[in-house]
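Database export, one record per block. Field names are fixed; values are copied verbatim from the stored entry.
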Amino acid sequence: MNAKTCATDPHVIDLPGEVVYDEVVPSRLYWQHLVKAGQQLRIIDLEGNQAVDLLIYFADDDAERYSAQDTMAAQGNLFLRNGAVLLSNEGRAMMTIVDTSVAYHDTIGGACSVESNALRYGHHTKAQHACVENYLKASLPAGRSKRDIVSNVNFFMNVPVEQDGALGIVDGISAPGLSVDLRAEMDVVVLVSNCPQINNPCNGFNPTPVRMIISE
């Protein structure tokens, strides 16, 4: 759907201002949309345990984009929590997490690809669709290429760092109906892959839909 939602919907009743966009993104697919400065984007994990891989580009010049390195350095933490500011490679604030139903979100696990799937899980997975392919399908018509796909945020994904420094990919920490709200600090293009991964627990081995709501 792409229309104003009924005000009695519990998912939108506490959003600031008016809902101007509302869409359910099916499992395994991508979503790309302009979010203007001051608008708020709510991402809802409809069925629980679904990873949402997100990239951000400055709407006026996509050479400026989300930077995991700058974001982690500025906040002194690997994980994104309530109040975290997502910075660009120019050190500017792009979006701010203004509310989240889960304790933290991952910014180091990266996006799955056919190459990484084949390496980690075996050559038989090579034909499986992955997040990088979603990013490319959305980016190529917009004039971006594979070199423009940088380290992304993984909302609702649980990637603990073990004592020996190894990364784990375990069951997500979300549940049906939980959400994260981001306020745009500049005009941005938000690109999401609703992660299709079925070889590890990040989606509970069962990718499901998510809902994207923009309010102003």
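Remark 1: The CA atoms of residues 144 and 158 lie 29 Å apart.
Remark 2: The two ends are 18 Å apart (CA to CA).
End of record.
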